[in-house]
# Entry
Amino acid sequence: VQLEESGGGLVQSGGSLRLSCAASGTIFENVAMGWYRRAPGKERELVAVITSGRRPNYADSVKGRFTVTRDMAKNTVELQMNSLKPEDTAVYYCYADIKVSPNYEYDFWGQGTQVTVSS
# Structure
């Protein structure tokens, strides 16, 4: 399974960006998809994840500003980021929890896309 990300870039504080990610390959079941990020000098953290049958899970720091959506038929996930702040600057990674067969389930990661918010 491969995850291909698009979007990201440089934006001023208060601006918006949209990240997209598409999963391809052998997908028996798409269990969850979402986004993590790693800021300079910090550990990777959850931003937003949608698990099948559950409400999206957001980091407290992005609630009310970011919206994650998933298209299960297309195996895609998007992250709409509004009211961006300099502290949102990070490398954003697409994440997917996928069953490649009924008995095998793995975590997959994208290559990462840089989001930079200038003050």
About this structure: The first strand starts at residue 2 and ends at 7. The chain has a mean pLDDT of 97. The radius of gyration is 14 Å. Residues 6 and 65 are 20 Å apart (CA to CA).
